[in-house]
Amino acid sequence: MIIGVLGVGHLAAAMIAGLMKSGDRQTILLSPRGKSKELAARYGLEICVDNRELVERAEIVILAVRPADATAALEGLPWRAGQIVVSVCAGVALSQFPAIAARIVRAMPLTAAEINASPTVFYPEIAEARQLIARFGLAIALRNEDEFEVATVNAAIYGWAQDIVRQSVHWGHDHGADQQTMRQLVAQTFVAAGRMIAETAEPMETILKDLVTPGGITELGLEVLEERGQPAAWQAACDAVFARLTSVPKDRSGYVDEVEGAG
Ligand SMILES: NC(=O)c1ccc[n+]([C@@H]2O[C@H](COP(=O)([O-])OP(=O)(O)OC[C@H]3O[C@@H](n4cnc5c(N)ncnc54)[C@H](OP(=O)(O)O)[C@@H]3O)[C@@H](O)[C@H]2O)c1
To answer: Quick one: how far is CA 211 from the chain centroid?
Structure first.
């Protein structure tokens, strides 16, 4: 499999790390610019002379430029039938891309692709794209692009979850706990919370109810959070991100640099 990466920045670096860990018998070609020199040196990868060479040689191309650069990056290149483009550009709809011979799939990996732990939504379902995306972590095909846009909000939730972990670790450290111990404890607690929901069939309300002892510490904390604006604050944040994603004009004429990035 010859994989081309067009746009070698932060997310591409995470995806390439994941690909290097998960694959053999693969060639990864990089577009020039960004972090391509650094990553080529780290992994022994080849940098193409230009994007034309990358498109000529790659079977599947990951498009990882910033959203405002996405449509222009595909223009004027020698795309061919049978080729696949996996765009990870947040908020850029399929209808905004130029008509090219290659098929375009949208995907939304998290930086956890670096450790092959990114649940990654994608649309439409195409077998070769799924094969590639599954190497970043759990590949989840969505039913349509509207659903993809809703699910893209999760890319921001990933960062908020990390921020809550960070804040909890600092709180513990400020109160005398060892920082490294707190880091492992809180991070693994979030993993545990996620796995309990992902890996059991119980309704989420039941799972939560089972752990909230009446008059206990979990209940106390939930009450304080509610007094201070939860879950309304969290839902408002989701609404704001969704509004940003869906306010970007979905045709090629009006795309503006409103969706700076998923991260
Ligand atoms: N960061 C995340 O966690 C995350 C998560 C999910 C999705 N995404 C999506 O991933 C995309 C990239 O985000 P990022 O954070 O990785 O951005 P980034 O670090 O700015 O990387 C984008 C790279 O694309 C390069 N580039 C732009 N146009 C190019 C072209 N025509 N040919 C070759 N290279 C080109 C830029 O090069 P220069 O530096 O030379 O301009 C830059 O290195 C965005 O669309 C974002 O929505 C990001």
So the answer is: 30
Unique residue bearing structure tokens 């004027």: 76
Which of 93, 98, 68 is closest to 250 using CA atoms? 93
102-158 pLDDT, tens per residue? 999 999 999 999 999 999 999 999 999 999 999 999 999 999 999 999 999 999 999
Mean pLDDT of 64-86: 97
* CA of 240 relative to ligand 1 center, distance in Å: 22
194 among annotated binding-site residues:
no
- In CATH, what is the architecture of 148-247? Orthogonal Bundle (1.10)
Sign of CA dihedral 33, 36, 37, 38: positive
List the domain boundaries for the chain: 2-142, 148-247
Question: CATH classification of 2-142 is 3.40.50.2300, yes or no?
Answer: no
Going 36 to 41 to 43 to 46, the CA torsion angle's sign is: positive
Atom 35 of ligand 1: nearest residue by CA position? 7
Residue 51 annotated as part of some ligand binding site: yes
